[in-house]
Amino acid sequence: MASPLRSIRARLTLGALIVVAIALVLGAVVAVQLVRVSLTDGVAQTLQQDLETISDRLDDGDMSIDDIDDDVLVRVQGDTDDDDDGPRDEVNDSDASALPIVPEDTTVRVQVDGDPYLAAGADSDRGALTVARSLEVVDDAVAATGVVLAVAVPLVLALVGVVLWVVASRALAPVERLRAQVDAIDATDLDRRVDAGRDDELGALARTMNRMLDRIEHSQITQRRFVSDASHEMRSPLATIRQHAELAQAHPEASSLENLSGVVLDEGARMQELVEGLLVLARLDEGRGGAMALTDLDDLALAEAQRLHGIGVGVDARGIGPGRVLGSEPLLARAVRNLVDNAARHARTLVTIRVAEREGQVVLQVEDDGTGIPPAQREHVFDRFARLDEARARDAGGSGLGLAIVREVALAHGGTVTVGDGASGGALFTLSLPGTAS
């Protein structure tokens, strides 16, 4: 089982927390700045009102600078007194003497005796007027806001983390149940299936797993049957060879080297055919069909017709016309030979081979004039090591893999193979493959 810190739940929670943390920190910084700007703007507006009022009243002589409350620092610098050669410098508080001259229509942040002030300036009849108000309340409010956010952000993150963990745990609980169900299925009970009752993504995943289990179960059943049949088929020629060898050893007068070598050669050829068939099927099962190239199916069919002529089997090849497909030539040649050999074993006098192009398909037909195949057994003939009635038994040299190989070759090339009744009452095998432009 994966470490809790590396689980999907932990990664989802951590990823979401990182995003939320970044958003909250950025939001907190922006909030602090907005508070600072808002409060400073308020002080600036009040300061402008103070500046206008004080300037007007000083110019009109309605008030003296000493009458101004010390909540506001006021300094006037500029004109020279008649009785004094130096410039006049008037302040309403001793701290106001530290105020600089501020250009008109501007505000600046200044330090007066270690305290922050916002100062504004204007030109008056009495000189350069500077008015300042304390920013201590603003700084205190900004600091308090920062402290609140510094405490609130971690608390919100903790709460969000807990909520995310709980939500992720509940959302992933069906996944854990599904994992446990799949983990409980082993090779001995592949007939079990997982719960696929949900109508969501997990339900679709469960149904996909059930289909996968169906394929695995079918593959296991097929493999077991295949291994059982293969071992049985291999045992038969080996037993025949051993029996004749034991007979020749125990009773030399009852056998001869010629008879023994004939048996060994015949049974060895049968075993070789069986092993080669098994290897071909194994490659096809693994999807290793070989290199694809343009192949003339009619050339393969004509070669098989000539081969049958050479061994004395009657062949009608007049129906072979042009037919080109994209495929593996060795596999297609094997499929054609298997169909022709099957027909030759069961034909009474004649094997008919046809090749034609029909609606984008290249169709190969191989027909014999034998006893045919009953409808109930026509699908079964393509099974590996299929055993039919005596009329189509493998006593004539078949391995039981030829037609199975034909079907796998057809499937590997996107085609089909079927069996039906021929015109003369025998079996008619039809191999249909996607055609290609010549």
TrEMBL record:
It catalyses: ATP + protein L-histidine = ADP + protein N-phospho-L-histidine. Signal peptide: none annotated. It is found in: Cell membrane. Its EC number is 2.7.13.3. Pfam families: HAMP (PF00672), HATPase_c (PF02518), HisKA (PF00512). Its main location: membrane. The keyword Kinase applies. Residues 169-221 form the HAMP domain. InterPro entries: HAMP_dom (IPR003660), HATPase_C_sf (IPR036890), HATPase_dom (IPR003594), His_kinase_dom (IPR005467), HisK_dim/P_dom (IPR003661), HisK_dim/P_sf (IPR036097), Sig_transdc_His_kin-like_C (IPR004358), TCS_sensor_his_kinase (IPR050428). Residues 77-97 are annotated as: Disordered. It is an enzyme of class 2 (transferase). Residues 229-437 form the Histidine kinase domain. The chain crosses the membrane at residues 12-35, 141-168. GO terms for molecular function: kinase activity. It comes from the Bacteria. The keyword Phosphoprotein applies. Keywords: Kinase, Membrane, Phosphoprotein, Transferase, Transmembrane, Transmembrane helix, Two-component regulatory system. PANTHER family: SENSOR HISTIDINE KINASE TRCS, SENSOR HISTIDINE KINASE YKOH. This is histidine kinase. It comes from Microbacterium bandirmense.
